[in-house]
Amino acid sequence: MTQRVKYTEQSPVIFKKFVEFLNAIKEGTIEESIRNLVSIRASQLNGCTFCLDMHVKQAKIQGERELRLLHLAAWRDSTLFIPRERAALTWTEVLTKLPEQGVPDDIYERVRTQLSEKEISDLTFLVMSTNAWSRLNLAFKTVPGSSDKIFGLDKAKLA
């Protein structure tokens, strides 16, 4: 697979602002372990191999257990995820595959039992960002693993 457009070169100012947006999200209320799970799950739903590859490697480097990574695609049936993580994954899925009528009240209320309004807001920006990155990388066919050395992802030793 050959990358169609190197968006970092073609739109450097926008790319820089988008990275700043992502960095601001990292300073929010959602802990790193949940950010990793959310990013992986959204990437799975979007079918973005580049993003999935990157987020799995990041999670592994940051100490996520491999079994949880393997269970993530079927998290509802797994006992490895706590209620807070389940709420974040529920929110991720509904925002990534947005229903025609928007987010149902029952899902919002269920998520709200585990996350504060601030956390839901921060999580929403994370999901938006992950989905936008997936769309960029899917549109331009970014090659999985092509940025591993730049981002230090070769440390995951998953090649």
Describe this structure in words.
The radius of gyration is 16 Å and the shape is globular. The protein has a single domain (13-146), classed as Up-down Bundle (AhpD-like). 64% of the residues lie in helices and 0% in strands. With 159 residues, it is mostly helical. α2 packs antiparallel against α8, α3 packs parallel to α6 (83-96) and α6 runs antiparallel to α7 (105-112). The two termini are 17 Å apart.
Ordered list of secondary-structure elements with their pairings:
Elements: H1 7-10, H2 12-26, H3 32-46, H4 49-61, H5 66-71, H6 83-96, H7 105-112, H8 117-139, H9 148-151
- Helices and strands, in order, run as HHHHHHHHH
Low-confidence stretches: none
State the fourth-level CATH superfamily. Answer: AhpD-like
Query: What distance separates the N and C termini?
Result: 17 Å
Strand portion: under 5%
Profile the largest sheet: none
- Domain module tally: 1
Proportion of residues in helical segments? 55-70%
**Broad shape:** globular
The number of distinct β-strands equals 0
What class would the helix/strand composition place it in? mainly alpha
- Supply the CATH architecture: Up-down Bundle
